[in-house]
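Section 5: illustrative case.
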């Protein structure tokens, strides 16, 4: 197949980890006879430095004509002050908004060979395979804000349509997995949560009777995610709860360097990125973990390009590298840590081997 994948390396470790994912895409391209166009564009602090904007018009135009976007990370200590008018992180919000991406998908699995890296005991982690779907463009983050000398307010609003579409995304994913959907809300207190629960119940009964639905309050979900994480399949929740829950879930494997993500809208175009940031503390040292970015590219192959066999091959190659003990510093290796390029090369080697075999 022919596809254009916009590549946005961004800041800090972004270019280092993206390089490894691009090498992997080239192997998939040549082995399966695809034709990938992989144009790069400026994004984040490097784009501010060059053009004054974190999302320059040329980058947006490229993203809009691409089939999918592979993104590293943005953020730079020089722009850390949250009161600054122009900040790298505005680029992500702007891009998601421009592309109408309202569902953020974060799969969380934990490879058996690195259970020791997690802060949780291994017995709780066996079999963890969770997909958290967070609503991305509504709720309290986007409602009207007020401020007086002695008070402040943030408005939380959801429309029926906003709930319906993200629930459908989550339910479709559940259908391809263990057919269990947990909807997380705070319906005992919040009106938006009561609407969320009503709409979810209706959509699931009418359109997804084959998927088991349960509702859980956010406080309870936060607890059960640590106590019995293996019981969850797909979780769907609103923006603020999802922000907190996805970071909590991200701690289950013990390193941010393992977790991919996808942001999707109604079509197949999406943004694929590791969940971690630009890690300025280790940028330029060649020691960042590239696995999350390579796994994000695998999600891209699956969800935007429909290349399931290719995605599975990449995921299996990462799993094989981990099984063989190839650990970057964040995965607390017993011996010398693998560098970013060594970890990337280990995946490529195993990918080549399995494709040849
Ligand atoms: P971070 O995720 O960049 O780093 C947190 C810690 O995890 C650091 O110690 C870092 O070294 C480590 N880490 C992260 N990714 C790693 C990897 N692949 N391999 C090994 N270690 C890794 O979060 P932060 O330090 O809070 O933020 C740094 C910058 O990133 C900030 O400017 C922030 O705004 C930005 N940020 C961007 C995104 C994004 O681009 N989507 C997401 C989160 C944070």
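Designed sequence:
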């Amino acid at each position: 197949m022919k596809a254009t994948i916009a590549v946005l390396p961004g800041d800090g470790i972004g270019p280092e980890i993206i390089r490894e994912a691009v090498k992997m895409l080239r192997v998939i391209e040549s082995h399966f006879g695809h034709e990938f166009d992989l144009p790069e564009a400026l994004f984040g602090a490097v784009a501010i430095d060059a053009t004054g904007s974190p999302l320059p018009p040329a980058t947006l135009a490229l993203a809009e004509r691409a089939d999918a976007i592979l993104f590293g990370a943005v953020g730079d200590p020089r722009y850390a002050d949250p009161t600054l008018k122009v900040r790298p992180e505005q680029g992500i919000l702007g891009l998601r908004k421009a592309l109408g991406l309202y569902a953020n998908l974060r799969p969380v699995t934990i490879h058996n060979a690195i259970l020791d890296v997690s802060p949780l005991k291994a017995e709780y982690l066996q079999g963890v395979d969770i997909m958290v779907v967070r609503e991305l463009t509504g709720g309290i983050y986007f409602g009207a804000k007020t401020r007086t000398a002695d008070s402040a307010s943030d408005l939380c609003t959801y429309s029926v349509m906003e709930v319906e579409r993200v629930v459908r995304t989550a339910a479709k994913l559940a259908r391809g997995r263990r057919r269990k959907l947990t909807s997380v809300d705070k319906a005992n207190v919040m009106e938006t949560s009561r609407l969320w629960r009503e709409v979810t119940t209706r959509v699931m009964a009418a359109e997804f009777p084959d998927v088991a639905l349960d509702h859980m309050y956010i406080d309870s979900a936060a607890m059960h995610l640590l106590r019995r994480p293996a019981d969850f399949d797909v979780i769907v929740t609103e923006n603020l709860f999802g922000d907190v829950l996805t970071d909590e879930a991200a701690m289950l494997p013990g390193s941010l360097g393992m977790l991919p993500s996808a942001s999707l809208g109604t079509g197949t175009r999406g943004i694929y990125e590791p969940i971690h940031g630009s890690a300025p503390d280790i940028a330029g040292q060649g020691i960042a973990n590239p696995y999350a970015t390579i796994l994000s590219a695998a999600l891209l192959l699956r969800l935007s390009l429909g290349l399931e066999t290719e995605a599975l091959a990449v995921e299996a190659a990462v799993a094989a590298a981990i099984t063989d003990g190839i650990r970057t510093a964040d995965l607390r290796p017993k011996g010398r840590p693998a560098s970013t390029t060594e970890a990337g090369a280990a995946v490529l080697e195993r990918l080549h081997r399995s494709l040849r075999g």
